[in-house]
């Protein structure tokens, strides 16, 4: 492909867009003018174009540092579809394939080369890059460089060698998730006096909701059946075992579900990832080993079956929903055991005290989001330093939670925990404490004589589920805490004495039924506001796209997204020139697919 003299020409001819979005133009200008840049855009915000356009304009090779093999392959395949010369070097290739790529790079036949940080930092790769003209280094998922980030990878810190070895080559660090401390560390380690381009973190098309965890397998099944039947989604779990159990439960109920985690053989993971990319109705049940860099635009929901470890991780994972800008959902089930499990994970880690302190800060922020009675989007964006107003598109906005005065209940719990310790010389877990408050006659209660303490049976005004909810919220408020190093017993927190002295108010959310969520959608055509002839053509084009994807072995979205098909359906082109006004449709795709589209348009609308 020829080099373009103007970035706007490259944008139009290759990618089919008339204008840059948001901060893309500033990022492109920084690269073309030789300046470093820090680019923060939400998932789906168009970060890739920030370095892909300079690669088509600048003389030389653009090297993209990418942490995942799946991401590299997806990007290269997508670029090939629009005629861009791109390649990758990774461990999936034979030595012959790697040698061929190197020959093509030396011959100037490659515009973008994707490399994992581990491969880039080898002596052989660094020496190889010395033999070619490098125009730009683009460091994707740059938050991995920071110990404050949610996905810290020590190897990213070694990328500082790029500015030392090639000081005149500009660097662009890109990420979708970085708070202020993380941004400072990215700049300090990787960049020199960069343009800091921070877009809004908001994804207004995503509906956020949190439900009390009861039977999460059945809750997930109802959520998918009622709100996303036949649609693509991702379910995140913290453990491999839970992935397997939930995937099996969904599959047995007729959902096209697969498990994915790091305990699987690499070939099995690759096969399942390929299915996820190509099948329209698949639900992937995965650990956080899955998803970074996934570009599939029609993921309609991301669900969390367990509390995430950090707001940053949660934000990045939920950002994989609705990349096409159409309505999507971020759903999370959360309960008392999540709090205990997360605390146990931190306490049992072999890491140093600084790491544990950092993880507790992250957990506190995540608990604050899960327990908030305010707009979830406001809370989420505030974490990244962005002010906003109530969104009207989260569970708390649509159904404001009822807050109740829980000072009496807090005193009951504090008193019960203290009296059980005094009676037996030891502390007990939440289940036992709640059973005492409810006056249960369990074997442990009778064995320890806890039916004789003054707090026995004083909490019968609430159910066990309600008491567990109160305990969870008091832990989040630091009135109680879980001693995971001693069998997860409940202990009095730093604010317990203030509660007993009536120095602070205690308010908790009342238990509610599960969130009804956003209205059901009846299909992509309705979400794109298509009716009549346009809807008929849209469905015909989707059938053609599915057949084309099967024949070529490509994901359907690499051929055309639903949004592009919707534009075609509204314009119902009759000649090739009519495609020029359709956004996202570059010259290469017009040449390849226009004859089929014109034929289908005529067949569908002239019946």
Describe the structure.
Helix content is 46%, strand content 13%. It is of the alpha/beta class. The strands form four sheets. Strands 3-4-2-5-6-1-7 form a seven-stranded parallel β-sheet, sandwiched between helices. The chain is built from 28 helices and 17 strands. It folds into four domains: 7-198, 3-Layer(aba) Sandwich (Rossmann fold), CATH 3.40.50.300; 206-398, P-loop containing nucleotide triphosphate hydrolases (Rossmann fold); 403-509, Winged helix-like DNA-binding domain superfamily/Winged helix DNA-binding domain (Arc Repressor Mutant, subunit A, Orthogonal Bundle); 524-605, DNA polymerase, domain 1 (Orthogonal Bundle). The protein is globular and about 85 Å long.
Topology at a glance:
Blueprint lengths: L6 H9 L8 H9 L4 E4 L6 H11 L3 E5 L3 H13 L4 E4 L5 H12 L5 E4 L1 H4 L2 H7 L4 E6 L14 H4 L3 H5 L5 E5 L4 H11 L4 E4 L7 E7 L3 H12 L4 E5 L3 H13 L4 E4 L5 H13 L4 E4 L12 E6 L6 H8 L9 E7 L1 H12 L5 H19 L4 H8 L11 H4 L4 E3 L1 H18 L5 H8 L5 H6 L15 H13 L3 E4 L5 E4 L3 H5 L6 E3 L14 H4 L4 H21 L3 H4 L2 H10 L15 H19 L2
Parallel strand pairs: 1-6, 1-7, 2-4, 2-5, 3-4, 5-6, 8-13, 9-11, 9-12, 10-11, 12-13
Antiparallel strand pairs: 14-17, 15-16
Describe the structure using short key phrases.
607 residues, alpha/beta, Rossmann fold, Arc Repressor Mutant, subunit A, 4 domains, seven-stranded parallel beta sheet, six-stranded parallel beta sheet, 17 strands, 46% helix, DNA repair
How would you concisely characterize the structure shown here?
By secondary structure, the protein is an alpha/beta fold.
